[in-house]
Specification:
- The chain is an alpha/beta fold.
- It contains 25 helices and 24 strands.
- A 7-stranded parallel β-sheet has the order 1-8-9-5-4-2-3, sandwiched between helices.
- Strand 6 (about 220) and strand 7 form a beta hairpin.
- Helix 4 (about 90-100) packs antiparallel against helix 5 (about 115-130) and helix 6 crosses helix 15 (about 460-470).
- It is globular.
């Protein structure tokens, strides 16, 4: 007969509740701070909903009324050096962290409001209304609030989207030798998101000091938690990842505070991540000033039951019971908070001329200038002011025949030697003598704490790298084994990392390098072969480099690592084993941002190419022999860095353009480039821009079908012959 042994989770899972004894023994100053912040946040949120009902909030107004106790109770144990981030419903968490930063000793709501507190309220309200004085200069609105100075690293409109980044903040804090912790707030809907579960696993495996704080408000918009999961006690997830977990009544701020003190102590001691699940209730609908019952998915009786457990009323009653505050002082605090919000509103609003009594509008001088619309999509490259810029024509160091993949490993080793902030992470980068291709050869042995082999979880480790970059103390180099994997991590790459600088006001750096390879022609099939250049070119925020020679790889990677913007370094497996001219011992130069290389001078036609296709184009021109082509290796592919000066000079000479690439037609880089050329240089073109590219289908594993799907020398020869026959 089979023997069955009952198994138990490796980590504890506890429920925390308070008794009268806990309230009696609680520090009066802690209770006062709980009350002060909950009251101020409640009054703030009520004011926001008032503006929304008047049509003065453009976009959503995701109020947190009812949930303030969970935010204040959990953030009170944190210090100014700790980090938080959150979801689209994050006003309460943002304000709790910001208020704790500017007024760590508390706020007398009935007295004169400290100017720093007033400024926090003013800038937060302005941001929600989309105004220039907001923390993100009006770009973030209700859903994207960031004030890095206070450790509020950004709220997020993508459900679960900020969770991987919080692991990055935690990693950076630990790597910097501090005991700071990171807390990421998300709701019941996000618990089932893949990136969240991936991050649970990664944080536990690496023992990162990150708290996953689940605000279980029981509704993802209108879908009840019981409909979405068979285990609505959401902290139960912790057992599957060996993460200690706490479950607590989020309407009881003291219980949340007690649970969070225990969780923070666990993390500061170096014991790894924690989960805290707080059962809370949002009094209003997903967005706006109406209750959920108005939309039919909740009953008025249910709402009344939860409102009877209001966290503000609970703390106020205990303060009065213990004779810490009087009823009159409680009322005066509310009155004082409302007066401050009214005064702030008067600064931002004015009566509508000729309007109804009480009708107001936003003052015209509070709006951002329209010209600010694209400022900060990328940085201004001022970080290159003291860089050593070289190109092949100015380089005086020793050069020799170098194998491409050896240069990849050598320059990364050099940067890790000279810059202790560089960290490399990805699948198998620490094994196999340098990963699957040898690109990280020798790095793990030399820098074991900065070469991080990750689980197979692109969303989690890409987002973790994004968090490291936003933190700013370290420079992550994230490797995707194949470029196709970017689709797995599309949220982190395109919604998070690419948009972070612009979305949060345009000033913050995001020094993130993504290395990935194109594997066309290797027989790896449809999901391991794509050229991602066209996709990244369509995503504002990314810079794109595509090295085709060993010399260029060194300079371009150095430029990517110096750049304060996210940069994708696209590599091609055909180049890895190739040999070309490269530096022998000088690996410290940067190639200039936005400069292409003319590989062949000619007068008949301009051919634009990049990566391995460049050498195939040169071979085609040589093979044909009858076309005097000018071949330009683009090197920088993003919209902001394309070398229009070199391209334009060539087009004005040749009056003809051919764009040659290997990739499929649907994700083609050349499609947008051709459109841009025809608009910029129409008067100099004798015919439409011509193109060589792969087929519609992704490359197949069949050797014959794969060759038919991609472009190489023969396709360039055929197209040049066609063009010159006109």
């Amino acid at each position: 007969m089979a023997v069955r042994k009952k198994l138990h989770p490796a980590s504890p899972w506890v429920e925390v509740s308070t008794s009268r004894k806990d309230w009696d023994s609680a520090d009066p100053e802690v209770l006062k701070r709980l009350f002060e912040q909950i009251t101020l946040i409640r009054v703030f949120e009520e004011y926001v909903l008032g503006l929304a009902s008047q049509g003065l909030v453009h976009g959503p107004a995701h109020s947190s009324i009812g949930q303030e106790g969970g935010a204040v109770g959990s953030i009170l144990p944190l210090t100014g050096g700790d980090f938080i981030n959150g979801s689209h419903r994050g006003h309460h968490q943002f304000l709790a962290k910001a208020l704790g930063h500017v007024a760590p000793s508390g706020i007398d709501l009935a007295g004169t409001m400290p100017e720093a507190v007033r400024t926090v309220l003013s800038r937060t309200l302005a941001e929600i209304a989309g105004l220039a004085r907001g923390f993100c200069r009006g770009r973030g609105g209700s859903m994207h609030l960031q004030w890095k100075e206070a450790g509020a690293m950004g709220t997020n409109a993508i459900v679960g989207g900020g969770v991987p980044q919080a692991a990055g903040f935690a990693w950076a804090a630990r790597q910097a030798g501090t005991d700071a912790v990171s807390v990421t707030y998300f709701g019941d809907g996000a618990v089932n998101i893949g990136s969240v579960l991936e991050t649970f696993n990664l944080a536990a495996a690496w023992k990162l000091p990150v708290c996953f704080f689940i605000e279980n408000n029981r509704y993802a918009v209108s879908t009840h938690v019981d409909e979405a999961t068979a285990e609505p006690r959401l902290s139960a997830r912790g057992a599957g990842f060996n993460i200690p977990s706490w479950r607590v009544d989020g309407m009881d701020p003291l219980a949340v505070h007690i649970a969070m003190l225990e969780a923070v102590a666990h993390m500061r001691a170096g014991n790894g991540p924690t989960i805290v699940e707080a059962e809370v209730y949002r009094y209003f609908h997903q967005n706006g000033p109406f209750p959920g019952s108005a939309f039919g998915y909740r009953t008025k009786a249910e709402e009344a039951e939860w409102k009877a457990r209001d966290p503000r009323d609970l703390v106020a009653a205990q303060l009065v019971r213990r004779n810490i505050l009087t009823t009159e002082e409680i009322d005066a605090a509310t009155t004082g908070a409302k007066a401050v919000m009214d005064a702030i509103g008067d600064e931002l609003l004015e009566p509508v001329p000729g309007g109804k009594v009480g009708q107001r509008r936003i003052r015209a001088d509070e709006w951002p200038a329209p010209g600010f619309v694209d400022v900060g999509v990328r940085g201004d490259l001022s970080e290159f002011a003291d860089a050593r810029i070289e190109d092949r024509d100015t380089f005086t160091g020793k050069v020799g025949e170098r194998r491409f993949i050896d240069v990849v490993a050598d320059v990364m080793a050099r940067r890790m030697e000279t810059d202790t902030s560089v960290v490399v992470l990805g699948e198998d980068v620490h094994r196999l003598n340098g990963g699957t291709n040898g690109a990280t050869k020798g790095l793990a042995a030399a820098y074991p704490d900065r070469v991080l082999g990750t689980p197979i979880s692109e969303n989690a480790f890409a987002g973790l790298g994004g968090g490291i970059a936003v933190d700013g103390r370290f420079k992550p180099v994230v490797e995707f084994m194949y470029a196709d994997f970017m689709w797995v991590a599309a949220d982190q790459l395109f919604n998070q990392i690419a948009k972070a600088r612009h979305m949060f006001g345009g000033d913050g750096s995001v020094p993130f390098v993504l290395r990935s390879k194109v594997a066309m022609g290797t027989g790896y099939g449809s999901q391991h072969s794509m050229d991602p250049a066209g996709i990244f070119a369509s995503a504002p925020g990314w810079r794109i480099v595509a090295p085709s020679t060993p010399f260029d790889y060194v300079g371009l990677l150095n430029s990517a690592l110096r750049c304060a913007d996210p940069v994708v370094v696209i590599e091609h497996v055909d180049l890895y084993t190739s040999v070309g001219e490269g530096p022998v011992d000088d690996l410290d130069y940067c190639l200039p941002v936005g400069r292409a290389a003319v590989r062949r001078v000619g007068g008949d036609i301009t051919i634009l190419s990049y990566l391995a296709m460049t050498s195939l184009v040169l071979a085609a021109v040589e093979q044909l022999g009858s076309v005097d082509a000018e071949v330009i290796d683009l090197r920088w592919l993003d919209r902001a860095s394309i070398d229009w000066d070199t391209i334009g000079e060539s087009i004005r000479k040749t009056n003809n353009v051919l764009i040659a690439e290997q990739g499929a037609a649907g994700t083609s880089y050349g499609s947008w480039l051709a459109d841009e050329i025809q608009r910029r240089f129409f008067d100099w073109l004798d015919q439409p821009v011509q193109r060589v590219h792969g087929g519609e289908a992704s490359p197949s594993i069949s050797k014959v079908l794969e060759r038919a799907a991609i472009a190489k020398t023969e396709e360039v020869v055929e197209k040049l012959s066609e063009i010159t026959s006109y």
